[in-house]
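User: Fold both of these, please.

Assistant: Here is the first one.
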Amino acid sequence: MPRPPHANRDLQAAPDGISRRRFLSASAGLLAAWGGLRGAAGVRRAAAVEPRFLLAWGEPGDKPGQFRANVGIALDKEGNVYTAEFRNQRVQKFSPDGKPLAHFPVQPHAGGLAVDAEGNVFVAHWNSHKIAVYSPAGERLREWGAKGTGDGEFQLPGSVAIGPDGLVYVPDQGNSRVQKFTRAGKFVGKWGSLGSEPGQFGGGQAPGGRFAGPQFVAFDRDGNVYTTDAALDRVQKFTHEGKLLAHWGSESSEPGGFGPPPVDKNGNPIMGGPIGIAVDSQNRVWVSATNHKVQLFENDGTFLCGVGGEGTEPGRFDRPHGIVVDSNDLLYVADTMNGRIQKFAVA
């Protein structure tokens, strides 16, 4: 079976039998430590925005409420939580407190997903090189894309997002670009190329590779577009037309950096870096990374605070992928290789 786009290790089970008091106590200690970290010059603490663990749900498995490589996460207009699973080939829907509401099968290799105002679910099918749209009941409504480099074609589209302009943005990883479409799938525009210069993606990777381009995208209130680039350990900020506005990041393990990379079962480093991205109501930028962290930045790249570290305790992760922030500034994290979702208050 193909591996998820950014994962290289079998799922780990979350610990059983942890009391709520112990769970919250462990979380509070971890988050306090993260909030007090200071790194290199320019890294500063913002105690008022330290994430506060609220709850977690899920465990590895294929039953409702369980996950295998839950890569994508999104919200509908009611605040319900949707996930897409790379290995279980399905979408699940939950209430904000983790109650299972629905699930339906999707085509293979589901990555990131988005939900429009009508409740239709857009899924990036990574190895299938296409975007598919499903009704709220799970009926496949339409799809577009095929493997290639032309307009409207893809190589390993890792995720999908609907911008404030109503257009569908697709990080076309293997083609080192972002493409834009109407919700009906009509091509509108694109930007990006393979390279290491600001505005490019995936420098040092072979053309068509899974780390050769942007991973996820998100939008601020002004309609600007933020992208993650795992190969270059950076976030880039663009206008909706693709004009570069800012970029930041490093492979450092200090706060604000996206390293070190994870290791395989033999202890050898594997490709990693920033993956998921979300923007909250204050235009602050949340970024997940394969270094088992979720970090918060000002939209100019100034580091604020973070949460994480490898593990199964509350507030720890195993290669988190998709993240999303709701209208109440509640942060949901797809804790991908732990097979669960974690929820934090970040206001």
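And the second sequence with its predicted structure:
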Amino acid sequence: MSITIAVSNQKGGVGKTTTTANLGASLAHLHKRVLLIDLDPQGNLTAAFGLDRQLDTTIAQSLLDPNLPMPILAVKNGDKPSVSLVPAAIPLASTEASLMTKLGREMRLRDQIARISDQFDFVLIDTPPSLGLLTINALVAATAVIIPTEARFFSLQGLQMLQESISEILYINPSLKVLGILLSKLDRRLREERAVAAFLRERWGDLMFATEVGTNSKILEAGSAGTSVFTYAGAEKAAECYLELAREVINRV
């Protein structure tokens, strides 16, 4: 049975896609079988692995038709261990609206993952920046949540909102737990970010990952190039950071 982790935060721009992509690549580097699911209609996770031009079918069709298995694409990564990915594209936005009239609409993704759970050690789900039906599907399917956040005061509200949302999801998925809160895109040169980081560690304690992902242009460049930090020149420091995060995740699950 795989461990399913939703990477979620109702606030946008906090590093959900980057976390999903590079944590997934790190887990694969540690010899885990990893499936990534892009559940954001923007399809940024799909593009981050250069698969946005190979889309005959996406996750959208599998959510609408329970009899249609999820399309699983192999990610090429040279001679390095890699991941598999279920892609998304813009039409997923209309799929979310169509799901509103379907029976079992909150559990469509959970049932799809159950079909392939013995093929993977980890399933990571990248979610959109909202608590719509797509995010609800991810949280119902997941056994744990990773919450990336910036160390900015306006990001604290997003953490509180997500915590309240998770409390609601427990009605359908009582086994869901927060695996950890990840400080992402952290710039310790800024006094505000140091202060917020200290506040978060005091407020959330052991829920905070010890690993912090600092600002690093190579992380963004790797995503734009359609690859992970493990195959992008000059991203060695970022790769080691995500490996540390992957080891923490393995220890926590």
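Strands lie at 3-7, 34-38, 73-74, 84-86, 122-126, 144-149, 177-186, 208-214.
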